[in-house]
């Protein structure tokens, strides 16, 4: 299967960047400051995907399912601590997945418009891209707090399209999480699911994206030069 699209919407965490080590450090730093027990990175990895607020609420609950008894004041305080801790340590251990930089450069050279649509707070996107040498590749950066809704809601995808003046049908969404695939389906466009990311420890194929790839560079096999 191949197709002609000219705009690529990329998820960030678990797709371009393995950010879980730094997210886990900030989560555990927060828990230590609150005199609560910490969790292994392998556990925290499975809590990433719905933005900072949900991540810290899962950590306070010790589970992917947020406790109904969670104290809202504690959750607010923990979120503040987490955001400060993460802000100060965005790119200590985070790294690009194999093939990301060269593939993005190739796709840009092939004529694609590139955008990031992440559930991560918007303020963190640019510093992380800068820390990993991805500055200047993307036309638009949409964060989890850019709009009132985040993925799996389709609004951030539509917003990215409006900013780039393209139709949603011209776009392909590329992500590691069911939130990316659900958002693409709700927006009415196709998606690629990458198997190496977070997705709550579940296979991304379960969400039925049009393509499933094990490596980021596999994208190059379906993307021909724009207007070729
Ligand atoms: O930070 C998160 O919870 C998820 O971010 P992502 O949408 O880039 O995967
Ligand atoms: Mg992701």
Automatic annotation (TrEMBL):
It catalyses: 2-phosphoglycolate + H2O = glycolate + phosphate. The active site is at residue 11. One of its GO terms (molecular function) is phosphoglycolate phosphatase activity. Its EC number is 3.1.3.18. This is Phosphoglycolate phosphatase. It comes from Catenovulum adriaticum. NCBIfam families: HAD-SF-IA-v1 (TIGR01549), HAD-SF-IA-v3 (TIGR01509), HAD-SF-IIIA (TIGR01662), PGP_bact (TIGR01449), PRK13222.1-2 (NF009695). Pathway: Organic acid metabolism; glycolate biosynthesis; glycolate from 2-phosphoglycolate: step 1/1. InterPro entries: HAD-like_hydrolase_sf, HAD-like_sf, HAD-SF_hydro_IA, HAD-SF_hydro_IIIA, HAD_2, HAD_sf, PGP-like_dom2, PGPase_prok. Its cofactor is Mg(2+). The keyword Transferase does not apply. It comes from the Bacteria. Mg(2+) binds at residues 11, 13, 176. Belongs to the HAD-like hydrolase superfamily. CbbY/CbbZ/Gph/YieH family. Coiled coil: none annotated. Specifically catalyzes the dephosphorylation of 2-phosphoglycolate. Is involved in the dissimilation of the intracellular 2-phosphoglycolate formed during the DNA repair of 3'-phosphoglycolate ends, a major class of DNA lesions induced by oxidative stress. Keywords: Carbohydrate metabolism, Hydrolase, Magnesium, Metal-binding, Plasmid. Pfam families: HAD_2 (PF13419).
């Amino acid at each position: 299967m191949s197709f002609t699209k000219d705009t690529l919407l990329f998820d960030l965490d678990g797709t371009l960047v393995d950010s879980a080590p730094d997210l886990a450090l900030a989560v555990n730093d927060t828990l230590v400051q609150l005199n609560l027990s910490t969790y292994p990175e392998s556990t925290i990895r499975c809590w990433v995907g719905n933005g900072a607020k949900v991540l810290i609420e899962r950590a306070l609950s010790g589970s992917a399912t947020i406790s109904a008894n969670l104290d809202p004041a504690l959750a607010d305080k923990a979120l503040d601590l987490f955001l400060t801790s993460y802000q100060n340590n965005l790119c200590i251990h985070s790294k690009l997945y194999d093939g990301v930089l060269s593939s993005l450069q190739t796709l840009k050279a092939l004529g694609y418009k590139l955008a990031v649509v992440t559930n991560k707070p918007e303020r963190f996107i640019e510093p992380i891209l800068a820390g990993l040498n991805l500055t200047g590749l993307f036309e638009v950066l949409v964060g989890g707090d850019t709009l009132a809704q985040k993925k799996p809601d389709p609004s951030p995808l539509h917003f990215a399209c409006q900013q780039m003046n393209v139709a949603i049908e011209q776009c392909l969404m590329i992500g590691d999480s069911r939130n990316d695939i659900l958002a693409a389906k709700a927006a009415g466009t196709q998606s690629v699911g990458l198997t190496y990311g977070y997705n709550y420890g579940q296979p991304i194929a379960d969400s039925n994206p049009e393509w499933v790839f094990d490596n980021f560079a596999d994208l190059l096999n379906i993307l021909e030069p724009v207007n070729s």
